[in-house]
TrEMBL record:
It comes from the Bacteria. The keyword Signal does not apply. The chain crosses the membrane at residues 6-21, 33-51, 81-112. This is SpoVA/SpoVAEb family sporulation membrane protein. Pfam families: SpoVAC_SpoVAEB (PF03862). Keywords: Membrane, Transmembrane, Transmembrane helix.
């Protein structure tokens, strides 16, 4: 049942984003920033953790989850280091995910033949 819940919640998030892209004049980059900021805001309000416990990876994988990870990292770093934690917490918390995306993207560029759009 956990897989179905994650699939449905993740699908609803993606569908909402697609509707936002289709029905508004917002560019994809702005929608992505909106998702990250929304995830951070929901984490700040204490809403995201119960939502993530219910939805599992359906909530943690999309950009909402990335925003929440950034917020949690900043929160922990501020508690530990004070003001300077604002600048280092997000990097520390998200470093593994960003590094993995870069490494796997680089490996994929060797396996597949990348082409520029015309």
């Amino acid at each position: 049942m956990e897989y179905i819940t994650a699939f449905v919640i993740g699908g609803l998030i993606c569908a909402a984003v697609q509707i936002l892209l289709d029905r508004t004049k917002m560019m994809p980059g702005r929608v992505m920033v909106l998702l990250v900021c929304t995830g951070a805001l929901l984490g700040f309000c204490g809403i995201y953790k119960p939502f993530q416990e219910f939805a599992g990876s359906g909530a943690s994988v999309p950009l909402l989850g990335f925003g929440n990870v950034l917020w949690q990292g900043v929160k922990e770093a501020v508690d530990e280091y004070g003001f300077i934690g604002i600048f280092m917490g997000g990097f520390k918390a998200s470093a593994v995910g960003i590094s993995a995306a870069l490494i796997f993207g680089y490996i994929a560029s060797f396996i597949f033949e990348p082409k520029m759009k015309k």
